[in-house]
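Lab notebook, bench 4. Still working through the backlog of constructs that have no structural model yet. Next entry is a single chain of 164 residues. Request: give me the structure tokens for it.
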Amino acid sequence: MQISYSGKVQFCVFLINQQIFAIDIRQIREVNPNINIFEVPSTSEHIRGMLNVRGKIVMIIDVAVKFGKPRITLSNKCHNIILKNYHELCRVKDLELSPELKKIGDYSIGFIVEEVMDIMEFDSTQILPPPAHLSEVDSRYLSGVIKYNNKLLLVLNAWSVILA
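Model written out:
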């Protein structure tokens, strides 16, 4: 999925292994504090389990594991970032959806994160291309980086993480 940015863009900013990440809120359905995740036996290490959100089942991915880091330790600061499904994404402006996303359909997927810090707005000119060789995260998972208060926010392309 390609993401184009213009004008002001809002991001959900959060922590994974003390690294600051951001996801364009256009990709997010909701941020949910429920961490009562039911583990599913015999699944990939990065699949944390299933979560019941108002009667709908959401598969929760531990992005830290996907990045080769230890599992996120559950605490009262943890949240699940529930992503929009394929049909919801089709209604979002300025998103080019890749054909493989169609396989997701109405299936709900989310990420467990250590802490949701804030919703922040940036001008699209502040979003820079991701460096080719990052030590922390594979650059194919990123749609950009933002310099903010002497820190670097890594802008995740949520669906590239899931489909990789």
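Notes after review: Residues 142 and 157 are 5 Å apart (CA to CA). DSSP finds three helices and 13 strands in the chain. Flag for follow-up if needed.
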